[in-house]
Write a structure and sequence with these properties.
With 157 residues, the protein is α+β, with helices and mostly antiparallel strands. Strands 1-2-3 form a three-stranded antiparallel β-sheet, covered by helices on one side. A hairpin with a 2-residue loop joins strand 1 and strand 2. The chain is globular, with a radius of gyration of 15 Å. The model has no long low-confidence stretch (mean pLDDT 92).
Length: 157
């Protein structure tokens, strides 16, 4: 199966987007912007991300394609998409939300392996004491994303 790759400069740095014909496969923070390929999924993802960064979008409609991940990880990633815009929850609260109340450490590990940052909003998960903990892109990016969402709330839908 072919995959397509594009890059975009965002307020939190360079984002690398990888897609297959079925949907977006990953969104990662990278150091440099490289030549991009064009594909309808990548174009839609970039458009929606631009709208998100411009305070014009709270949720994403771009199709997602996640071929990797255990069934538990898939449950966690689905749970992440249920955390409302501009809201946060703890790893324990997320574990309870997906009906695995004692698995908050495993939820943290699955959250760390989320292949589609921002769109699957793992940045909205914080420590039980409300502290910013763990984010693959770096805590500075997590803090920026949370502040960005809070600064545009309430958002007219």
């Amino acid at each position: 199966m072919l995959s397509y790759k594009s890059y975009m400069l965002s307020p939190v740095g360079v984002l690398e987007l990888i897609a297959k014909d079925e949907g977006l496969l990953s969104l990662n923070f990278v150091k440099e912007e490289l030549p991009s390929q064009s594909h309808p999924i990548l174009d839609l993802a970039q458009q929606e991300l631009k709208e998100y960064f411009a305070h014009e979008r709270q949720s994403f409609s771009v199709p997602l394609y996640t071929m990797a991940g255990t069934s538990f990880q898939q449950e966690v990633w689905a749970g992440l998409k249920e955390i409302p815009y501009a809201k946060t929850c703890s790893y324990k609260e997320l574990a309870e939300m997906i009906n695995h109340p004692k698995a908050y450490r495993a939820v943290g590990n699955a959250n760390n392996r989320n292949p589609i940052s921002i769109i699957v909003p793992c940045h909205r998960v914080i420590g039980a004491d409300k502290s910013l903990v763990g984010y693959g892109g770096g805590l500075d990016k997590k803090e920026w994303l949370l502040n960005h969402e809070k600064s545009s709330f309430p958002y007219p839908t």
